[in-house]
Amino acid sequence: EAAVTQSPRNKVAVTGGKVTLSCNQTNNHNNMYWYRQDTGHGLRLIHYSYGAGSTEKGDIPDGYKASRPSQENFSLILELATPSQTSVYFCASGGLGAQDTQYFGPGTRLLVL
Amino acid sequence: GQGVEQPDNLMSVEGTFARVNCTYSTSGFNGLSWYQQREGHAPVFLSYVVLDGLKDSGHFSTFLSRSNGYSYLLLTELQIKDSASYLCAVDSNYQLIWGSGTKLIIKP
What we know:
The complex is a heterodimer. By secondary structure, chain A is mostly beta strands. Chain A is built from no helices and eleven strands. In chain A, strands 2, 4, 5, 6, 9, 10 and 11 form a seven-stranded mixed sheet that branches. A four-stranded antiparallel sheet of chain A has the order 1-3-8-7, with no helix packed on it. Chain B is 0% helix and 59% strand.
């Protein structure tokens, strides 16, 4: 079954440390996305990719980098983590617009102390 | 600016119905999707609408009025397992703008 997986599922980091969140999809989708979800906010798009080698800035890219080394893998990198980046991060693959379903990974809970 | 608004909470009773509202103001409109998100889990796609009117899909139905920037998700014959957050996402020029979701609480 097609799936999106994320690792780690939970992460505790220190302020100023580097954090890498990984995402793998077996849907063979070109497009992949990184979102964060905080109470009181909708899903907010951080970075997205149209395919291997491509990364694009979303709505809130500051403090984050992304890497898409292959069709299957898409990483989110926090070079210098801050407490404001404490959140739940979701990776998704799928269509660009509403008519094409986005398939989400299970999420990563990140706590930055 | 662009925005998608949803009420934070909604309460209903098992066996009845619930209507989850979504209002939006966006520069473009290519359709609207509804997702269900259970506590501690990822969002799961439910429905997509782009034409005005009611789209009946059984347990979940969706309504859209483009002129009013309004949609709702209607859940009928509610079951306790329908307790979840329901997210509305508007496609504005092939960029999804997400609402913050409505938490539906169902009482026995």
